[in-house]
Amino acid sequence: PMPIALIIGIYSGFFAISEAAAVVAIYILIVETLIYKEISAKKLMQVVKESMEMVGSILLILSVSLALTNVFIDAEVPTKLFQFIQENVDSKISFLILLNIFLLFVGAILDIFSALVIIVPLILPVAISFGIHPVHLGIIFLANMQIGYMTPPVGINLFISSYRFKKPIAEVYKASMPFMIILLIVLVLITYIPQLSLYFIN
């Protein structure tokens, strides 16, 4: 019932997407402590403590990644890279190849929110000029950003996994490589088979 309640609540406007996490947390708290009674009051405090430690580590990673983002923005690295691509590409296939390389690099150094603000206005007009549908471009962009979340130096998903499962970050990198390869294969399919992204639109 919880997924259905979330969908109804979000699409009816009863609560925002950002508030959905709080709704889920309250729901789980009630179910686990009052209905199933799997978490006692003493254990609940331990769960809260561990959760706060994880949130603190995530905020620390985000603060460092945002600082790195500001350095690259001040140096105009994304803009210069895309200008190079724009000046040296004359075909759609070449553009898509370089676009993926560019976005993978961007995903590795910028958080997705900064990338949305900085990169999308740069690539959208050029992509449209090559006949790439904006929705298709959006799917390519998001796929690259998600892969970027598994790529150093930001790679926030890897840092969270390392902290949560108490494994060295190098070990997490190594374990994630097979999945990275699968994601890259899927990215190629998404890029060069636009029907996968545009089927429902068409």
From TrEMBL:
Protein name per the record: TRAP-type C4-dicarboxylate transport system, large permease component
Pfam families documented for this protein: DctM
Originating species: hydrothermal vent metagenome
Localization, UniProt: Cell inner membrane
Cell membrane in keyword set: yes
Top-level taxonomy: unclassified sequences, metagenomes, ecological metagenomes
Principal location: membrane
PANTHER family in the cross-refs: SIALIC ACID TRAP TRANSPORTER PERMEASE PROTEIN SIAT-RELATED
Keyword flag Metal-binding: no
Stretches assigned to the TRAP C4-dicarboxylate transport system permease DctM subunit domain: 2-196
One Gene Ontology cellular component annotation held by this UniProt entry: plasma membrane
UniProt keyword annotations, A-Z: Cell inner membrane, Cell membrane, Membrane, Transmembrane, Transmembrane helix
Topology of this chain in the membrane: Multi-pass membrane protein
InterPro entries xref list: DctM, TRAP_DctM
Recorded GO MF terms: transmembrane transporter activity
Annotated TM spans: 6-31, 52-73, 93-110, 139-160, 181-201
